[in-house]
Amino acid sequence: MSGQISHHLSPTPAPGLVTLEELGHLVQGREIDTVMVAVPDLRGRLMGKNLDAHHFLTKLPGGPEMCAYILATDVDMNPLDGFELAGWHTGYGDLRVVPDLGTIRRLNYLPGTVLVHGNAVHPDGRPVAVAPREILRSQLRALAVHGLQARVGIESEFVLYKGTEAQLRRSGFRNPTPVSPDNLDYALDRPPALNAFFHDLHNALHEAGAPIEAIKTEGAPGQIEVAWPYGHPVGACDTYTLHKHAVRHIAAQHRLTPTFMAAPQTGTGSGLHLHISLWRDDEAAFAMRPREELPELLQHSIAGLIDALPQLVPLYAPTPNSYKRYVRHSFAPTNYTWGRDNRTCAIRITGHHACTHLEVRLPGADANPYLALAATIAAIVYGLNNHPKLPEPCTGDAYHAADPLPVPRNLEEALTDFQQSSIALRAFSTPVVQHYARAAEVEIEAQHGQVTDIDRKRGFLRA
Question: With contact defined as beta carbons under 8 Å apart, do 118 and 39 qualify?
């Protein structure tokens, strides 16, 4: 890929995004001077470089080079052993990030800047198999074998706290104060600080070509939920990563700090709910009327999710904290159940007629959206290929269901199942499973042997 930036990826942007030609005019008019080229890392965070806009348009051959370790580190970006992609054994060489020119977005919270998502490729142009965007695309290709496409909507939950990041860091993140002190679920009489934040976030996402469907306060103090309309799966995940980037910057402007931890405080859980439907030639494959028998395709999809998702947990619950969200009567599932319009289940059928779809409630706010969605698609494809038996639906409180398989109690349990899973190996390949197994091991090792506040509280005077 020599010469100027390759145009073969998504050349026609979605409405609201900036075309390459429009970017040229903005640069010429000195409205844009910086192009932020980003690739999602293992945790779904945007990593990359700020490029001079004129250089991006005229001089850059195929995309910027970046150290391959951006896809092989811990959360603190420490170089680590155990990853085949990058390490001391490789000399920490480069990969290339090829801009996806259908994703150019103007960021009103960073003046003069556009963001463009990119695809990680090896120096010879081969896609990096362990890159989250490529992992999701590989599962979409497997779904396409069945003549099906997925449409996806994402719900993001996070908690917003008073004070700057520096102030919370100085306190050791102990006892942070939520921006609202009470349960304001669905409330419209919100504190002024929240209304101002909502307004700025709404405008930023709209101007970046990622208009929201709804934004609301949630059930925990300071908790917020943002939802987007249905769209292309990769595009939905790109929007979510843009959203997290925007939330952090806009919150800082308001002297607030967000967290996307799955369980930031005892009794508070934040989810990343995936709404998914399947389509064949613009026909809704899940379409059904209330109380009708489930279409066969929907039955196979749910059965695949119930059978396969227990073996893919590190892809949607990647940290030890993830498992502290799975608490009874918390609206986070504790077992692998399904039901019609039942929020106590892991898999919820919702919507009507052509809008019938599945809500997967297992991923937490700390999940990488590309990986969580890839696990979901892989489980559906498993169901379509193997037709596992569909268990009975849960019609009441799923937290008290006796038969379903429980969600793993911790990351260690989930990792063992993932490493030994033939479903994971067939769907994702050995190199991908090993890469994300190593990422889980790093998370486990980071907390092993650490003395916590609970240790001191329970043992300081009583041991």
Answer: yes
